[in-house]
Fold:
Amino acid sequence: MVTIVTDGVGYGWKGKEGATADHHGADDIIPRDIRFGIVDKPTRHWFAGDIVKTALADGLSIFLPEGERFFIRSLKHYAAQLDDRELADEINGYAVQEAYHTREHEDYNRAMAALGYDVKAMERPVASALGLTTKPLQRLAVTCAIEHLTATLSTVTLRHPEIFDGAEPHYRRLWMWHALEEIEHKAVALDVLKKATANMSGWQRYLLRVVAMNATIVPFLLIFLRNTYLYAKTDGVKPGFRFWMRFLWVVSVSPGFWRRCIPLLLRYYLPGFDPRNSDDAALVAKGREWIAREMPAAGATA
Ligand SMILES: [Fe+2]
Ligand SMILES: [Fe+2]
Structure:
């Protein structure tokens, strides 16, 4: 049985009978109600004073409030009809985590607006693209694809926390917290998809997954690049050849964040892909220790 316990910081998520708020299993989903105060301290080029690195992280935040509300709705639609109490409880834990993420990224994006970036113009195509999905199963398949993207980015983040060297602590903490919780709930959306498509053949389900990934990743990249262009212009930087060469260098060479993501991302195209097959226990433990060390008040949930 799965229950939620409050632990004075947020919610401790008990995934196993007998687990306590202080002794969680690696596969437990633990929503942590943490405020990072970014809206109180907006910082231009917070990522080591580097416009490209900052634009890469801020560009991701643009997708998140709208995206995470969409994920919660997609999964909650199925929670009542699956006849699987444990999965319904996992969806609940997932939704609480994503709701906290939404709240913090709304503040993050407000801070970006306070610095002069046209956040509304950058968020508009995200809402439009997500609005193109009309059927619950489409929305669920898109949620699975994006959850794999976020799990991929989070895996690389937790494997290489030194990427944040020189970053402002309040931003770095938010991204590490978010990365940990994305890994904790990486399998929930696909578990729901498996249940919701129990009457489909394995190949039909595979096609649904990969078509949704292709339909997600292309608009994601186009919107991301367009928003990076707007971002640079706001900073008075001409987004010309030199800017894009530097962008390419940062994503593919040093620190090469996107390059490190590609092999993990491609796993989604394997017919038998299941996030539960990659054991992230050590990574989750590393993330929880990091949070306990950096944010002792939140450490109660680690
Ligand atoms: Fe999230
Ligand atoms: Fe997520």
